[in-house]
User: Which sequence fits this backbone?
């Protein structure tokens, strides 16, 4: 059988796309850095995977930040996988960093989410590291100017959001600031989505308080500004992913801008995730578009969300199988003060997509 011209074209296209025209989220490969790498000398920076030249320079001049950034890369992977575990596209391909498949190499909705999450995660992790005293270059965030209300006082150590945003965006936006890296449209889109991630991070700064006073009376509360957990920020971003806007790169006056593709003429909102390329439905395996398909994925017969067998299996049906779960049971309370339990085995029916 002779391969069709489309086959060659698709192969060629995926070749250009896969040779990494956009380096934006390749730094997530830092998650694979061996913990034995001490990272206390500037020449170690060259050994790190997935960095562009300007990121290697940032590494050399901010060595003390690198362990935190490596941790951020691990957080991105963990959080993305968890947030999308109930979806057809379950973020498993992020583990392939820095050599992604087309689901993340093209300007898709999925890549929009990963860019936003990565930008949020790096700033989140740095801001938190300031609080725990892990970084020499920063400490607690500023004490807010406003008074916290009666019964409350400022204290504790605020997350240093400002420092996190400055250092985080310097590092994670660096690939998009390079002259020769992918199309202008892609770079604009990635920068936009990264900024959306940081906006959600900023909005997550909230007042956190601890109680003081005689035996838990909570007559005085000490409060500080703390960031929400990354998994909550990721849930916000997942909602933005679900309502993301398709855009086109269109000339307006002397410059080109990303504008929504549908007829409603309006600029792109600062709060919405945007994408240039439509994604497949991820039902069937198709490597040309980076789809793993959902065959053999577990589904939930009683759910009516995205993990329901109907949606997950795309109407193909599902096969039941028996699974054993071990649980704590027959727990007894002993005076004083501990609990002992037995282990019980239970069989549950589970389902996988046909
Ligand atoms: C870097 O760390 C390694 C291992 O912890 C240590 O043996 C080495 O002396 C350190 N080098 C410098 C320049 O601090
Ligand atoms: C995610 O999807 C991939 C591809 O379909 C599958 O191999 C993997 O088991 C899934 N992971 C989870 C946690 O469901
Ligand atoms: C399935 O979905 C239902 C309803 O959303 C939920 O209560 C249950 O825990 C889920 N089961 C599993 C195995 O995830
Ligand atoms: C399932 O869908 C029905 C109606 O569409 C809704 O009322 C119900 O709350 C949903 N249940 C769950 C567990 O999401």
Assistant:
């Amino acid at each position: 059988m002779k391969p069709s011209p489309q086959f060659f074209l698709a192969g060629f296209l995926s070749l250009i796309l896969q040779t990494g025209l956009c380096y934006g989220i390749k730094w997530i490969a830092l998650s694979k850095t061996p913990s034995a790498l001490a990272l206390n000398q500037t020449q170690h920076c060259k050994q790190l995977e997935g960095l562009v030249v300007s990121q290697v320079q940032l590494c050399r001049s901010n060595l003390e930040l690198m362990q935190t950034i490596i941790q951020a890369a691990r957080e991105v992977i963990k959080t993305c996988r968890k947030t999308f575990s109930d979806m057809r596209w379950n973020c498993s391909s992020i583990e392939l960093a820095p050599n992604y498949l087309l689901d993340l190499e093209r300007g898709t909705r999925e890549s929009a989410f990963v860019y936003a999450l990565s930008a949020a995660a790096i700033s989140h992790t740095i801001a938190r590291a300031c609080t725990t005293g892990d970084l020499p270059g920063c400490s607690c965030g500023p004490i807010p100017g406003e008074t916290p209300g009666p019964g409350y006082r400022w204290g504790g150590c605020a997350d240093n959001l400002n420092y996190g945003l400055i250092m985080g965006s310097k590092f994670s936006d660096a690939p998009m600031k390079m002259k020769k890296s992918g199309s202008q449209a892609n770079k604009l889109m990635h920068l936009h989505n990264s900024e959306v991630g940081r906006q959600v991070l900023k909005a997550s700064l909230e007042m956190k308080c601890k109680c003081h006073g005689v035996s838990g009376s909570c007559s005085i509360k000490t409060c500080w500004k703390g960031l929400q957990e990354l998994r909550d920020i990721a849930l916000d971003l997942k909602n933005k992913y679900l309502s993301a806007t398709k855009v086109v790169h269109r000339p307006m006056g002397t410059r080109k801008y990303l504008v929504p593709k549908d007829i409603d003429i309006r600029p792109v909102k600062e709060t919405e995730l945007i994408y240039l390329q439509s994604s497949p439905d991820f039902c069937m395996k198709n490597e040309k578009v980076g789809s793993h398909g959902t065959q053999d994925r577990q589904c939930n017969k009683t759910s009516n969300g995205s993990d329901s067998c109907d949606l997950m299996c795309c109407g193909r049906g599902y096969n039941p199988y028996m699974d054993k779960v071990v649980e704590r049971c027959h727990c007894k309370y002993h005076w004083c003060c501990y609990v002992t339990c037995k282990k019980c085995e239970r069989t549950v029916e589970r389902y996988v997509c046909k």
In short: Residues 305-354 form a domain with the Endo-n-acetylneuraminidase fold fold (CATH 3.30.2460.20).
